[in-house]
Structure prediction request, 90 residues.
Amino acid sequence: MYYQLVEDSVSAPAPARTDPRATLRGGLPDRYLNPDDVAEIFDVPKETLYQWRKKRVGPPSFRIGKHVRYDPADVLAYVTARKNAGQDAT
Prediction:
């Protein structure tokens, strides 16, 4: 049996990379975040994330080979905990 591939006459534009902050607000992304994503979310330099990782004070991260990754659920939990800590202090 012979199948002919037909291209659509209307091509959808390539999806633009979404802002990680908007992704976390709207729902958890379907991929692990890299340090660039988390630095953008918190509006801090990447070096700050590396210092937090070294001191174990920021959002939990893990390594995959030589790459550092963050689980979006852990980042969201960290933000929620920080917000609640600020409310408890008042």
Summary: Residues 35 and 50 are 8 Å apart (CA to CA).
